[in-house]
Amino acid sequence: VPSGVTVCQLCLVSATPGALGDALLLTRLERGQEPLSVRIATERGQAPLSGILREFERIQREQREANACTERREWWERRSRLDLRMQ
């Protein structure tokens, strides 16, 4: 990973090989840092997978829109709001 770049990876995982995934695994990668992974349960109504994926798609769409923003202050405001939603 290049210096100054953060990579986030989202995977659908299951504890049982061959079974439909029952959790999302969000992993953050940065140069010089240990990978940081967070398991997000999606079973038993804790966080419906379809809702999580819809929100993630909205965040990605809004990030693309923010990238087109040429005003620095507005870009940072948008980026900060998106960062909070990703938490």
From TrEMBL:
One of its GO terms (cellular component) is centrosome. Pfam families: Separin_C. InterPro entries: Peptidase_C50. GO terms for molecular function: cysteine-type endopeptidase activity. It comes from the Eukaryota. One of its GO terms (biological process) is proteolysis. Signal peptide: none annotated. This is ESPL1 protein.
